[in-house]
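A quick aside before the break. I want you to see a complete sequence-to-structure record at least once, exactly as it would be stored in a machine-readable document. Don't worry about memorizing anything.
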Amino acid sequence: MKTGLSFVLPVILIGIAWIIEIVDQLFFGGSLNFPVRPGGPLWGIFTAPFSHADFGHLISNTLYFIPLSYLALLNGLS
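That is the input. The structure line, written in tokens, reads:
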């Protein structure tokens, strides 16, 4: 059970980022972003990690995020 949660949660988070990037590229031409700005809305703290510059940025983050988050969650759940 612990191993399943350690794998599923990172895949869901990366899936959200990929869906947002696909929508961004198809409908907004890559200009959609969710920045954290001084004095800006608080929701930016939660949405900024899902905002990427392009597919290259998202691919490079995915390659590191999946194994590292899996290890972090596996260690944290034990």
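Two observations worth writing down. The chain has a mean pLDDT of 84. Helices lie at 2-27, 44-47, 55-77. We'll return to this after the break.
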